[in-house]
Amino acid sequence: MAKTAVSFFWFRRDLRLDDNVGLYHALKSEFPVIPLFVFDEAILDSLPKDDARVGFIHESLSEINAQLNKLGCSLLIKKGQTLDIWKKLIEEFDVKEVFFNKDYEPFAIQRDEAICQLLETNKSISYSFKDQVLFEEKEITKADGLPYTVYTPYKNKWLEKYHQNLPILEFDSSELFSNFHKSQFAFPSLEQIGFVKNSIKVKPYTFGTLSNYQDTRDFPAVDSTSYLSPHLRFGTVSIRKMIRFAARTNAVFLSELIWREFFMQILYHFPKVVTQNFKSAYDGIQWRNNEEDFKRWCSGTTGYPMVDAGMRQLNETGYMHNRVRMVVASFLCKHLLIQWQWGEAYFAEKLLDYDLSANVGNWQWAAGTGCDAAPYFRVFNPDIQQKKFDEKGIYIRKWILEFDLGYGEPMVDHAMARDRAIATYKAGILK
């Protein structure tokens, strides 16, 4: 029996039907398009069974599937090793073309190269597209073609190129939806994938407070953040739409979106930063890496209210305010002299908006080991940070219920820890 000739669109970090570059081009194929998502066991097997991010992915896919059902179509959901799944799909269908949006992380690049090689062997054509960034890794470079490693000149070049490329197009696929393959694939429950629901949920994004974002963004009690980051991470919103909105609304908010692209191109050009210092001169630092100290940091029981409130917020909700992230990261690396990789791994486990490039970039920034990082002698004083950004203790009291009942003593003296950190860095930085 002849196999059905089809094209595939492979959803990954782009969980939406609107303004999706790869999907737009897929639906222009001469073959009916099967929309596919793979729950990759290479990723899932390391996650807890109640991982809230998997729940959010499942929920987002369910919404896409409901939209497709109205068209007489459906999502094909698979779970397993990605390469094995593609081998089986090639056996089941006459796969003419495969469309997907690029992913710039080292693991994803290797995975995609293997899949494309398999498809080529099968005489299937693969097409990849830029979708999760406005400018990808080789579009914003210095005059000599080398990547920027300092944010401000990168940002200036980014903005220059942005204005040169206006208007930013939207990829509206709605008139092409008729080219989806007519199907009723069974949509698995979260439990069938091997996971269970978590009470922690991704919040809807909001722009209600962005008009004065630059004035309120450092104050965690104000709660003026957009909650956009998980949606950008999983692609439930289009980065092009968000950049267009930010460009006409708030320059400081736009700069945060540019930071995202800066860290992505750093990860692409310097993949060693996933596990190693960007600045190799810092490889000689002798970290204390005390496990008991790390446990107190993780549980939010350091005796420093701003640090503890941030960690408790993270543990209970999967979120942490950006100003507080800087404080808790600096505390771990400099007050406790625990290397940034420990904190990065903990954030990777807990953050709803976990994104490898931003997480690694920001942790190395806090530790002083990254590109364009905070200088090693800059050691945040958590108490001063609290007085500056949560003077009335509103944020702290929200997350530390026992705060007014006699809060514990700090686990380490700030002045001593600061002096120790500076001395340790000085001694360890290779000349």
Automatic annotation (TrEMBL):
Write the lineage as a comma-separated list: Bacteria, Pseudomonadati, Bacteroidota, Flavobacteriia, Flavobacteriales
Q: Please state which protein family the record places this protein in.
A: Belongs to the DNA photolyase family.
Task: Tell me which UniProt keywords the record has, alphabetically.
Answer: Chromophore, FAD, Flavoprotein, Lyase
Question: Would I find Lyase among this entry's keywords?
Answer: yes
User: What is the name of the protein in this document?
Assistant: Deoxyribodipyrimidine photo-lyase
Report a single Gene Ontology molecular function.
deoxyribodipyrimidine photo-lyase activity
Q: Where is the Photolyase/cryptochrome alpha/beta domain?
A: 5-134
Which species does this protein come from?
Flavobacterium magnesitis
Q: What is its EC number?
A: 4.1.99.3
Query: Could you name the domain of life of the organism this protein comes from?
Result: Bacteria
Please give the cofactor(s) recorded in the UniProt entry for this protein: (6R)-5,10-methylene-5,6,7,8-tetrahydrofolate; FAD
Entry-linked SUPFAM superfamilies: Cryptochrome/photolyase FAD-binding domain, Cryptochrome/photolyase, N-terminal domain
